[in-house]
Structure formats: structure tokens, C-alpha cells
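Entry 14. Structure prediction run on the chain below.
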Amino acid sequence: MPIILASASPRRAELLHQLQLEFEVVPADIDESPQEGESPLAYVQRIAQAKAAAIRERYSQHEVIIAADTAVCLGEKIYGKPADQADGMQMLASLSDQTHNVYTAVVVSQGTTIEGAVSDSEVTFRSISPREAESYWRTGEPLGKAGGYAIQGLGAIFVKRIKGSYTGVVGLPLYELTQLLNKTTVQILE
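Output returned:
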């Protein structure tokens, strides 16, 4: 059964490889701007569903489409990908010595069936000095990462504690994904 990953994220592809599945990467080109007054939870669910729908239009009903979206949030403020160094430094300063939420919505679509789930994880950062934040920015790792950090990379040194799904924080919650896939023709460890 053909599987389509509706994401250009190499981290999501790596996580999907952990399930020993063969798949094709077909990024969805959609507007990912939050809507005014939209909660972080509603935002990630809407974006994941929109990605799945955009790819569904291009394929037959037989393929299994996997789409996901991740948001790093402090309270109701959504931290997207940093626009530049100043933005990235501000994000790390805001997250320093704080507990934030990482919401990842995952949607699996096959035929007319669309199922979704959300992973909600709490990540607590230690205190991050401005010098450390600047040094981290210079590694290039924060570019293109929600919240301006990568828990699976050097950004892990800032993580004091995590409560929830590590793979959800990386960008594809494998527990929730396998529960959804098992409702389709794709069975994990059948």
C-alpha cells in the first residue's frame, strides 16, 4: 500500500523510517499562518488536516496519507520558525527557565476516512544565557525549527525535563501515529 508523507521535514521522515515503512515524501504547500484568536491546539489540528487534504486531492483513494504539524507554545503564544537571528534569540530568551507545551497533530487519511490525534508534551528548559543562545544560533540548528530549537540535536542540552512524547516534540508522535495507522490497511507489527 503506497504511503505518502505530506511533509518536507527530514525529522518526520527519520521517525517514519523507525516504523520500517516505505513511503514517498510529498510536501504540502499550504498557508500555515495562525488565524486570529486560534488556540495552539486548534491551529495544529487545522494545519495537519489542511496538509492531508491538499495531498489527497493529488492522489487516488488507495494511498495512505500522513500529515502532521507541530507548534511550540508558551501559554497561548505560538512560536513558529524563527525569521532571523533576533527572532530566534528572543524565542530562546522567552523559553529560558520556563515550561512550554509542544503540540503535534497527526492526521492519517485513506479513501474518505480521515483520523487525527494530538500529542501534548510539556518541555522545561533550564536557564539559557544570552551567550549560549547566540552560540547555539551560530550552529544553524535553530533555523527552520518551531520554537527555534531541535530537541533531537544540540538543543537537547537546554531541556531539563520532558513530560509527554519525545517523538511528538521532534514532530511526529509515533504512539498516536501507529494507533491511527492500525485503523487503515497499514498495520504496524501485525
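The chain has a mean pLDDT of 94.
Filed with the rest of this week's runs.
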